[in-house]
Amino acid sequence: MKIKRVEIREIRMPLMHSFETSFGKTTTRRIVLVWVEADGFTGWGEVTCGEAPFYSHETPETAWHILRDFLILWALEGEWNTAGDIAPRFRPIRGHNMAKAALENALWDIEAQQKGVSLAKLVGGTLDEIPCGVSIGIQNSVEELLGRIRREIGAGYQRIKIKIKPGWDIEVLDRVRAEFPGVPLMADANSAYTLADLPRLKLLDRFYLMMVEQPLGWDDILDHAKLQRELATPICLDESIHNAEDARKAIEAGACKIVNIKLGRVGGFAEARRVHDVCRARNVPAWCGGMLESGVGRAHNIALSTLPGFTLPGDVSASRRYWAEDIIDPEVTVTKEGTIRVPQAPGTGFETNMERIEKATVRKESFE
Ligand code: OSB
Ligand code: MG
User: Fold this and answer.
1) What are the pLDDT digits (tens) for 11-54?
2) 98, 266, 292, 326: which to mutate for ligand 1, most atoms within 8 A of CB?
3) Can 262 be counted among the known catalytic residues?
């Protein structure tokens, strides 16, 4: 694979509903998209970072810098047998996994088209339909949250995840469980607690949650292991897992019983598959997380979710929950049973809508 041209652009997309977590509120997404032309094919990737360095250190600005000044130059210099071959070339740069993933994933899209197979098939996927859950942000009132949950269950989603933080946790879950005693439910704290909150965290066990996601520090493994020993509720790690070695160490330490795998956070499909393999070999369930992606990143998440170790519903849901108009055709839809049917056409199986992308673009840079 010889890369001829790379384009990066920043688009702005207003969310249908602002999304609030323990670290802040997002109203309009700033998304850096990567477009690659190689061997007569074109592919897309998405930088999945937040607008501010709160979920991780990356921002659209750091991704632009790392892509422009390093990754794209290196990608243009080399020849790559497969998309996964570019990952070792990016290794000298520490961190910046979301910038790396955007470029690597565009090559996976190209490789799938070259080989005439679906991206899901290329990455080793086996499911042709994936189970879907939703992530519901912190709301202005518990009534609003209950209304949102009612609507998502009505739409068929197979599990509900709510965001929690100190002051929006036990009382909220009490009300949720009172109205929805049987719904598969989980809570994501995005690192809002410390071990000093142990008495409060132990109260979570009352709600027989599927899991509690990332209760402690974004870079912690050890304290999560201590916490897991005190909790019946399984811990799932998100922020703390940046590669397959992190996953191995976390599982061996007893820091988690479930792993959330995000393409951006681990640096692309090649590493995401390795994280998956580590989990699968140890019988640790995995699921695909979300980062409020546009259709480009969403299509990649669908492909990843078809791997056999993704045994729990992920945070990959319908385009309509995020966008008035997504930038891919068709947009992502969910069946009444709460699943997404995986496209079988070569590549992602979705077309990018250039008219909408151009309209949303605020800056663009090309490299040959
Ligand atoms: O922790 O999973 C998270 C969104 C932004 C940053 C972090 C997270 C999330 C979500 C939303 O939970 C998942 C989605 O609907 O895309
Ligand atoms: Mg999370």
Assistant:
1) 999 999 999 999 999 999 999 999 999 999 999 999 999 999 99
2) 292
3) yes
Question: What is the spatial order of strands in the sheet that 3-21 belongs to?
Answer: 41-46, 24-38, 3-21, 361-367
Smallest CA-to-CA distance from 357 within 7, 6, 10 is with 10
Q: Which residues contact 17 (CB under 8 A, 6 or more apart)?
A: 137, 321
Determine the pLDDT at residue 103. 98
Cβ < 6 Å from ligand 1: which residues? 55, 135, 188, 190, 238, 289-292, 315
CA 337 to chain centre: 22
pLDDT digits (tens, 9 = 90+) for 154-166: 999 999 999 999 9
Integer Cα distance of 312 and 254 in angstroms: 20
**Rounded mean pLDDT of 167-174?**
97
Q: How far is the centre of ligand 1, averaged over its atoms, from the C-alpha of 354 (Å)? A: 26
Q: Return the percentage of the chain with pLDDT > 90, whole number.
A: 100
